[in-house]
Each structure stands twice: as C-alpha cells, then as structure tokens.
Write a structure and sequence with these properties.
The protein is α/β, with parallel strands linked by helices. The protein is built from ten helices and 16 strands. Strands 1, 2, 3, 4, 13, 14, 15 and 16 form an eight-stranded mixed beta sheet that branches. It has a six-stranded mixed beta sheet with strand order 6-7-9-10-12-11, covered by helices on one side. The protein has a two-stranded antiparallel ribbon with strand order 5-8.
Amino acid sequence: MPMTSLLLAIVDTVSILFMGDIMQHGEQLRSAHIPGTDTMQPASYDYSGYFTHIQPFIDGADFAVANMEFALGGPPYTGYPAFSAPESLAEEAARSGIDLFLCANNHICDRGRRGLESTLDKYDALGVPYTGIYRDSASEASANPYITEIGGIDVAFINFTYGTNGINVPPPFVVNMMDGSSVRAAVERAGDAGADIIIVLPHWGQEYVTTPSREQREWAARILDWGADAVIGSHPHVVQEVEFPVAFSLGNLISNMSLRDTELGLMFRLDIAVTFWGFSFLAGWEAIPVWCSRPGGYGDGYTVLPVKEFLDREDEFRSRHNYQKMKDTYNRLKPLFEK
C-alpha cells in the first residue's frame, strides 16, 4: 500500500516512553533519608523529587517503561557494588506513572536468592507489571514476553541481560539472559500470540562507551531479522547512537555517577500509528535528552531535568558548573540522537 494512503488511514497514534537506568547509589540513599528516621525502614526515604520535572513527559505518554537497576533486597539498604534499594523508590516510580519495570540487568542478583525473592514479592505487592525476572521456568514460559494492550494495540516487551556480574541465578528463579535461541524464541512467541508491535530491550554493551560495539550491532540486526520492530538498550550508563528503529543505549535516568557523559541520558518516545484497518506500524520517534542533577547542582536533592527546557535557565541552577556541564555534554553528544 502506498505510504500516502497508509498515512491517510491513520485513526490514532499511541506513544510509549522509555527511560534509562534508575539507580540507587549510596549517596542517593543518604540524600533520600529523612532525618531522624530509622534507616532500616523503607518509609524513611523520600524520592519525591526524582521525577518532578519529567512528569509531563510521563503523563503525556500512553505507556511508560523504565530500567530498574537495583534489587529490592531489604535492609540494610546499600549502593554500589551490591545494590539494595528501599521499596519506596519503586513506589515513587509507580506514583509517577511508570507502567512497566524492566528487571533483567546485571545487578538484579546483587543480594542473592533472598534479594531476588524479595524483589519479586515487593513488585507483586506494588502491582506494577515487570518483566525479565520470574519465580520459576513455568512463570517465565507463561509471562515472557510481556504483552499488554495499549490504546487498542497489543505490544510485546522482551527484556534480557548479558549477565548478572558473575552471580549465579538461584534456582528455581529465572533471569532472561542474552542467549540467541531464547531471545529468538521469545520474539517468535510474541508473533504467534498476535502482538502488533514487538519491542526488545537488551541490557548490553560496554560501560562508559558512547559507540555501540560490533556485538551490539550484530545482535540488533539479528533481533530485527527475527521479527522485532524496535530495539532499545541499556547498561553502558552513557548515551549511544539512535539508528531507528534501534536506540543502542539510553544511558542513566538517575544515578550518582559523575564520570564523563554519565549524567546525560535519554527518554525515548516511540510513536505507533493505528490505521482504519487495524494495522499498526512505527510512525516516528523522539529522543528527549535529560540531565541527572545531583544535590547542589539544580536544587537540594537528586532530580531529572529535561535538558532543552533548562538550557536558557542558568539562573535557576545553584551551581554554574553543573549548568555548564549539562550544556557542554548535551552539545557534544546530541549528534548521536538528534534527527
């Protein structure tokens, strides 16, 4: 069908917003702790400032997805190298409107068997769907891929990780791994289940490198060849190229990292068109740069700033250095993701 006819037949557009790594380093714990409260209680940590400035983007999307790069392993709460965040962080993410948590990452097993079980229990109690981790192989078989209806179309999400930092996944739990036959089977199951759009979300690549590796490119090509519509990656903690329909790395959403390029991340909006005949296709995208401002940068605490909205608001920053670093990093990296 000619593209002009296809465009004229569009009756609706669905948008999905993808966010990078939500992390929980030790300094974030200390900043979130409410003075005078018990550090062993999750309610003693306040994350209400994290999503304030990006809330309109979350509200404006039909569905929002984020990579939750930590375990909810219970107290004592810890940052790097063995992450265990208070469930109040996940609760704040849920309150902000994040609809799906991605959990297949290299830190999900940081607290071992008890931590993985605790993470599953807390996400189940919270009621926000998650994918990439399962209680057993039967659960994985029935829930992978995660398929949900968004604006009248069925969208499949497939999340996997290159590894778990050398920590064995304790049986009978399952973490989706970067295994070709498994990923291909999940993509094919999505198609067999009638998914209109299939989105694959790998945790892959080399940390702190803004250029995707040959392995990432080869994997992306295979995944698309298997039938996926888009590939959106995480793990490097820096932004990598967007070569639609592939976004190799969205970088960090929020963390305590300050190494070169680690404070700039992307939110990635994927637009899906729905036609009069019920056919759906990827109609467009936007990479939205965000800046993780640490305490003393923009305000008192950690928060995520949509960069373009703050480029002309230098006077609002507490630290001119932080503002200039945001501006310089954005200008240096924008060729990677701007159309």
